[in-house]
Design a protein that fits this description.
The structure is a single chain. By secondary structure, this protein is an all-alpha fold. It has a single domain, classed as Tetratricopeptide repeat domain (Serine Threonine Protein Phosphatase 5, Tetratricopeptide repeat), CATH 1.25.40. Helices cover 77% and strands 0% of the residues. It contains six helices and no strands. It is globular.
Length: 104
Protein backbone atom coordinates (compact mmCIF):
# COMPACT_ATOMS: atom_id res chain seq x y z
CA UNK A 1 0.00 0.00 0.00
CA UNK A 2 1.44 3.28 -1.10
CA UNK A 3 0.38 6.17 1.15
CA UNK A 4 1.28 8.79 -1.46
CA UNK A 5 -0.83 7.05 -4.08
CA UNK A 6 -3.71 6.76 -1.61
CA UNK A 7 -3.49 10.47 -0.84
CA UNK A 8 -3.48 11.27 -4.56
CA UNK A 9 -6.46 8.99 -5.24
CA UNK A 10 -8.38 10.47 -2.31
CA UNK A 11 -7.77 13.90 -3.82
CA UNK A 12 -9.09 12.66 -7.17
CA UNK A 13 -12.22 11.40 -5.40
CA UNK A 14 -12.69 14.78 -3.73
CA UNK A 15 -12.18 16.64 -7.03
CA UNK A 16 -14.49 14.42 -9.07
CA UNK A 17 -16.72 12.28 -6.85
CA UNK A 18 -18.91 11.31 -9.82
CA UNK A 19 -16.08 9.47 -11.59
CA UNK A 20 -16.40 5.81 -10.58
CA UNK A 21 -12.84 5.05 -11.66
CA UNK A 22 -11.44 7.26 -8.90
CA UNK A 23 -13.34 5.29 -6.24
CA UNK A 24 -12.46 1.97 -7.88
CA UNK A 25 -8.74 2.78 -8.08
CA UNK A 26 -8.73 3.82 -4.43
CA UNK A 27 -10.41 0.56 -3.42
CA UNK A 28 -7.84 -1.47 -5.34
CA UNK A 29 -5.02 0.37 -3.63
CA UNK A 30 -6.26 -1.03 -0.31
CA UNK A 31 -6.72 -4.56 -1.69
CA UNK A 32 -3.63 -6.32 -0.33
CA UNK A 33 -2.87 -4.37 2.83
CA UNK A 34 -6.45 -3.80 4.03
CA UNK A 35 -8.85 -6.20 2.29
CA UNK A 36 -11.83 -5.26 4.48
CA UNK A 37 -11.36 -1.59 3.60
CA UNK A 38 -11.07 -2.50 -0.08
CA UNK A 39 -14.23 -4.57 0.10
CA UNK A 40 -16.22 -1.78 1.72
CA UNK A 41 -15.07 0.65 -0.92
CA UNK A 42 -15.85 -1.75 -3.77
CA UNK A 43 -19.33 -2.30 -2.35
CA UNK A 44 -19.84 1.47 -2.29
CA UNK A 45 -18.72 1.73 -5.92
CA UNK A 46 -21.30 -0.88 -6.91
CA UNK A 47 -23.95 0.85 -4.82
CA UNK A 48 -23.27 4.32 -6.25
CA UNK A 49 -22.28 3.31 -9.79
CA UNK A 50 -23.94 -0.04 -10.57
CA UNK A 51 -23.11 0.37 -14.26
CA UNK A 52 -19.35 0.45 -13.54
CA UNK A 53 -18.63 -3.15 -14.45
CA UNK A 54 -14.95 -3.46 -13.44
CA UNK A 55 -15.89 -3.30 -9.76
CA UNK A 56 -17.97 -6.50 -9.69
CA UNK A 57 -15.23 -9.08 -10.21
CA UNK A 58 -12.85 -7.92 -7.46
CA UNK A 59 -15.77 -7.30 -5.13
CA UNK A 60 -17.16 -10.81 -5.63
CA UNK A 61 -13.71 -12.39 -5.41
CA UNK A 62 -12.83 -10.52 -2.23
CA UNK A 63 -16.21 -11.28 -0.68
CA UNK A 64 -15.59 -14.99 -1.28
CA UNK A 65 -12.04 -14.78 0.09
CA UNK A 66 -13.30 -13.13 3.25
CA UNK A 67 -15.69 -16.00 3.80
CA UNK A 68 -19.11 -15.27 2.37
CA UNK A 69 -19.69 -17.44 -0.70
CA UNK A 70 -23.42 -16.66 -0.82
CA UNK A 71 -22.82 -12.91 -0.82
CA UNK A 72 -20.05 -13.31 -3.40
CA UNK A 73 -22.43 -15.18 -5.70
CA UNK A 74 -24.98 -12.40 -5.32
CA UNK A 75 -22.38 -9.81 -6.35
CA UNK A 76 -21.26 -11.92 -9.32
CA UNK A 77 -24.85 -12.47 -10.45
CA UNK A 78 -25.63 -8.76 -10.17
CA UNK A 79 -22.54 -8.00 -12.22
CA UNK A 80 -23.55 -10.55 -14.86
CA UNK A 81 -26.98 -8.94 -15.11
CA UNK A 82 -25.49 -5.47 -15.51
CA UNK A 83 -22.92 -6.72 -18.04
CA UNK A 84 -25.58 -8.39 -20.17
CA UNK A 85 -27.72 -5.24 -20.06
CA UNK A 86 -24.68 -3.32 -21.30
CA UNK A 87 -23.99 -5.90 -24.01
CA UNK A 88 -20.66 -6.82 -22.43
CA UNK A 89 -20.58 -10.59 -22.86
CA UNK A 90 -16.88 -10.85 -21.97
CA UNK A 91 -17.41 -9.41 -18.50
CA UNK A 92 -20.54 -11.53 -18.02
CA UNK A 93 -18.54 -14.62 -18.97
CA UNK A 94 -15.72 -13.74 -16.57
CA UNK A 95 -18.21 -13.27 -13.75
CA UNK A 96 -19.90 -16.56 -14.60
CA UNK A 97 -16.54 -18.35 -14.42
CA UNK A 98 -15.88 -16.72 -11.05
CA UNK A 99 -19.33 -17.70 -9.77
CA UNK A 100 -18.75 -21.28 -10.84
CA UNK A 101 -15.40 -21.37 -9.05
CA UNK A 102 -16.99 -19.98 -5.89
CA UNK A 103 -19.64 -22.71 -5.97
CA UNK A 104 -17.05 -25.50 -6.23
Amino acid sequence: MNKERIALLEEYVRQDPQDPFNHYALALEYLHAHPSEALGRLQKVIEQFPYYLPSYYPCAELTAMLGSAAAALTVAESGMTMALKAGDRKTASELLTLAESIQD
